[in-house]
Amino acid sequence: MEKRGHSKLVEVEKCGFRQTNDKIRLLDMVNEIRPRHDKYVIDEEALKVNKLVLRLPPYHCELNPIELAWSVVKNHVKQNNTSFKLNDVRILLNEGVKKVTSEMWANFVSHTIKEEDKFYDIDIISDRMMNDEDHIMTITGDTSSDFSDE
User: Fold this and answer.
1) Under a CB-based contact definition with an 8 Å cutoff, are residues 38 and 48 in contact?
2) Which GO molecular function annotation, any one, does this entry have (predicted)?
3) Residue 14: is its pLDDT beyond 90?
């Protein structure tokens, strides 16, 4: 978000932001205000029935089986699109969706669970490595810097 957007949020909250405030102060003010506005309706509705919405971590498509299904659909469109007309692409899209069978979906979910298990295994291994072994850092070569303690 650019500075004007942050400024507007702060002004709405009447926090006394002035154009002369620097960016760091502005971001501090926004971070203080944001939790009051950073809510989703679905989260609030889920809490009413004692449920919690879990979200996938960003940039981990391997943890989302829909990404595997979507790749089948996109591949179908890519291989069969010869006209590049919107209506033809729409037809190919619907055909691609129909190509994703329940068996394929079950395989996608199974694959995703295996990927999750790999993450758990890696997490356990890295925890053990950090806890079980002495960690010694060896620095070789020139350790001087351009800066002095003057």
Assistant:
1) no
2) nucleic acid binding
3) no
